[in-house]
Amino acid sequence: MDYFDIIVVGAGPAGSSAALTAAKEGVSVLILEEHPQVGIPLQCAEGLSRSTIKEYLDIKPEWVSVNLNGSIVRGPTGEEFRIEYPNVGWVLNRKVFDAELAEVAVSKGAVLEVNARVIGIEDDRLIVRRNKKIEKYRFRFLIGADGIASRVGRWLGIDTGLGLNEIEVCAEYFLENIKINPHYTYLIFQQNLAPGGYAWIFPKSENSANVGLGISPIKTKNRAKRYLDAWIEREFPECIIKEKIFGGVPAKILKRFSGKNFFLVGDAGRFTDPLSGAGIANGIKSGVIAGRNAVLRLKGKRDFFEREIEEEILKEIRFHKKVRDAYLGLGERDCIKIFNLGKKFFANKTITDINTRELVREVILSLPHLLPLGLRLIF
Ligand SMILES: Cc1cc2nc3c(=O)[nH]c(=O)nc-3n(C[C@H](O)[C@H](O)[C@H](O)COP(=O)(O)OP(=O)(O)OC[C@H]3O[C@@H](n4cnc5c(N)ncnc54)[C@H](O)[C@@H]3O)c2cc1C
Q1: Is residue 158 a contact partner of residue 254, using CB atoms and an 8 Å limit?
Q2: 243 touches 257 (CB < 8 A)
Q3: What is the pLDDT of residue 347?
Q4: Residue 94, exposed/middle/buried by CB under 10 A (0-12, 13-18, 19+)?
Q5: In a domain, 198, yes or no
Q6: Does residue 222 lie in a domain region?
Q7: Which residues contact residue 7 at a Cβ distance below 8 angstroms, ignoring those fewer than 6 apart?
Q8: How many whole angstroms from 94 Cα to the centroid of ligand 1?
Q9: What integer pLDDT is reported at residue 358 of this predicted model?
Q10: CATH number of the domain where residue 84 is located
Q11: CATH number of the domain that 139 lies in?
Q12: pLDDT at residue 199 greater than cutoff 60
């Protein structure tokens, strides 16, 4: 039976970041990925903001589909405003990005096994179905990076289940034969289009984009696909649909995401931003933090995994979760007022930073009847 210091389950951004960080320190690392090719199938709009990732990873030009200079926000009445934010981030080519990140981990010494689906855990052994055979691998430390449907967490006794108010259900298509400005994302806040969530157009080029939406199942019984099909027919009647994906984004904070000999990272640890649904950056951050701290544990040294995750990731997630919960409780009139405030806030300005706390403060000061809500956000 093969034996590794660290086994990482899942070769998404979180798993590969954990593996490459740990492998750099000279410990033996195995990554197990259930699919034959890393990065495929993809469930993502591929947007990444520069500020969220800058101390963790240098983004190479070959990983990028387009550079972004801001967003166009469409409100409940159909009116739009533009946020000018030069070099705010990128729409990645995640199929290339995920595959190359795993290759970097391998170049640092990690072993990558594809077609290797983890199907259970027995003490310090993983049971793996690989090329139709069952194999067992022993580990000293385990990193669960197996995405939103994570089973590693459950096997280790962690309640990773997602209630109806703890998930955003998403549908997204990759469209060609459209015409868009490739340097601006579209964010659309209309309750009849995406109840309890928002819709997006993330450009991949002048003629193609990831177009999708996320809905809250507590706001509607209809499927996300139904909303998306109807919208795409109106918005892009000439488009060619090349790919369809359906997935979810967690909006839950786990009570526990680590144990004596394991850490959960990325979507498996529920480190996705509950407001935007963004999980690439927090996946990478939590992976790097996990890789570093797993090595400390293996060396019998004191580690800071929980503290670093709290500081770097959970502090913001806790605040954004409250904002999301508040957003779910707002009526149409408040949404229109908030949109108008946003328009005033961003008009004729080029910005270099978006501070959610500052925005929420502006909203509360301008709409005093939302004060009780504001107090809930602060405390
Ligand atoms: C529609 C949609 C749009 C999104 N858009 C964005 C966006 O624009 N920007 C953004 O930042 N985030 C976005 N997200 C979220 C983002 O995709 C995830 O947060 C991110 O991929 C999480 O990375 P991860 O490494 O934790 O998990 P994943 O990328 O899901 O990787 C998990 C890996 O584990 C493997 N795996 C799972 N189970 C096993 C097993 N038992 N054995 C072996 N391998 C296993 C999987 O095959 C997969 O490769 C979006 C999500 C959705 C659904």
Answers
A1: yes
A2: no
A3: 77
A4: buried
A5: yes
A6: yes
A7: 29, 30, 31, 32, 126, 137, 139, 141, 142, 143
A8: 10
A9: 74
A10: 3.30.9.10
A11: 3.50.50.60
A12: yes
Cα of 313 to ligand 1 centre, how many Å?
Answer: 17
ipTM score assigned to the predicted complex:
0.99
Across residues 11-15, what is the average pLDDT?
98
Residue 148 CA, ligand 1 centroid: distance in Å? 7
pLDDT digits (tens, 9 = 90+) for 337-368: 889 988 888 877 787 777 777 777 777 777 76
Shared domain check, 169 and 244: yes
DSSP track, 183-219: TEEEEE--TTTSTTSEEEEEEEETTEEEEEEEE-TTT
What is the DSSP pairing of strand 133-144 with strand 2-9?
Answer: parallel
Residue from 34, 42, 167 whose mutation best tests the ligand 1 pocket (most atoms within 8 A of CB) = 34
Ligand 1 probe mutation, 21, 40, 43, 156, most atoms within 8 A of CB = 43
Residues 179 and 157 in one domain: no
According to the model, what pLDDT value does residue 370 have?
66
In a domain, 135, yes or no: yes
Q: Whose CA is nearest to atom 10 of ligand 1?
A: 278
| Average pLDDT taken over every residue of the chain | 93
Lookup result for tokens 């595959």:
99
Nearest CA to ligand 1 atom 19: 279
Last residue of a domain, one of 274, 303, 332: 303
In 10 A of CB 286, how many CB atoms? 33
The domain containing residue 197 runs over which residues? 72-89+164-250
How many angstroms separate the alpha carbon of residue 332 from the centre of ligand 1?
A: 32
Write down the residue that tokens 């605040």 correspond to: 319
